[in-house]
Design a protein that fits this description.
heterodimer; A: 427 residues; mainly alpha; 0% strand; globular; disordered N terminus; B: 106 residues; alpha+beta; GMP Synthetase, Chain A, domain 3; 3-stranded mixed sheet; 35% helix; 17% strand
Amino acid sequence: MDGLKTDLAPSQNVVIPHFIYSTVSFLVLAIMLVISSDSLAGHYFQPSLLAITHVAVLGWATMIIFGALYQLIPVIMEAALFSETLARINFWILAIGITFFAISLWLFSYELLMPIASIIVLLGFMLFSLNITITSIKADKKEIQTWFIGTASIWLFLTGLLGTLIVFNYRFNFFDQIHLHYLKIHAHLGMAGWFILLIMGVGSLLLPMFFISHKLNKKKMILAYFLVNIGLLALSLDWWFTGGSKLIPLYGLIISGGILSFISFVYDSYKKRMRKKLDIGMKFSVLSILLFLAPIVLGLMAALRFPNSMQLLNRISLLYGFVFIMGFIGSMILGQIYKTLPFIIWLDKYKDRIGKEKTIMPRELYSEKMASFQFWTYVPAIVLLSAGILISNKLILLIGSIFLLLCTLSYVWNVSMMFLHKPKDLK
Amino acid sequence: MKSSEEILKIEGEIRQHLKTVMDPEVEVNIVDLGLIYRIEYDGESSVDVDMTLSTPACPLGDAIILNVNEVLKANMQDLKFNVQLVWDPPWSPEQMTEEGREILGM
């Protein structure tokens, strides 16, 4: 079958463990947040918040992205993954590394556990970057998406490298400036370099596919690619060498321009969509794109030091990170899970029955009511937690984190339903 | 060799069988989605089917083509099917039937 590249798909045991680890992480994250919701009322640099953040960005988000990427790379690059064995080993390296790294942050045991765990995570990133870079070099099809993913994996490695250096600096103190300075660069390498580029690259392919929209302006994606990369490079170098010049808001604007170019691409796709009704997966995805606007505004406010109050600026910085991770990334994951996992499981469980007998549809592998409950607990969770951060109110933060826990439980329920599905006979 | 009327009738039957093949994501059958470009029965034992997918990147492509082959094999055992995946012309929404458009809410 010329042109059809799904026979390049990896085996399920490469993909599924990432989804399982990610789901467990999400549950752990929600529980941690309920236990220490009041930490969101303080400064962002505190052990519990650092631990929660890393469970979210590494355990939940990065792990599921790795799993999804292993599945999607053959589709996007029209090439098989360079090494499945490497991907399998890499899963265990990361699972162990991330688990111990999160524990070490929670306990703030920076003497031994944190350095060891951070090196293991970094090794995981290195192997991932290697696997992806070799795959992209060997790929026949080098569309803009290949560039997005390849570059994102390099930024991820740099994020991990700087993170590891920060950890070692606790003990050996070799940096000129205070930790927060490097933490800021580390966070932005991860946010803009890894997550934004990755989600834009994969999203620009998947979202139009799910909307069923054609004839989109790809130049917007090329513009987005260059603006985000140039803006981030300039921002990081400026912070590193000058400690933050007056040009910081300009770099923020360049990155924002890239984001807006991507949002405009998605908006075109939404307008031209053939499928008018949005299913639960696409409702979450559209919400994610809308929430993507919030960090632009909050980031620029922080860069311009507006309003002129240190206390308020701290809250805005925290909200900026929160909306980015739990809003933009979180909503995208909560939605795209329904556009990927049911199909992965369905193909696996029903591949021998397709065409020979009537089978259930992938959508029937999970409960739509539960998915809808997930949506309607997620929205108040984000609103309450954002409001709680902004006005620094512990009660609102607690209620918000309970809503998030309810959302998480419904997500875990549906994902478990899919994992535990036993093929049904419809005869 | 069958008459042209019989050929048309059998081609119609094949189309009906293909209507049982669903795109598992869109949940519309592949005939109404406009994925079937050509069904040509030679009047003896061989049938050519040209079909496409809504995007070459469709991760469910294998499953859909497997489904097509299995359904045809099971329902029309006397015929030999040659299912070809083609990308020219690329699929566009205009190729959908009225029924397909209705299901998508267009």
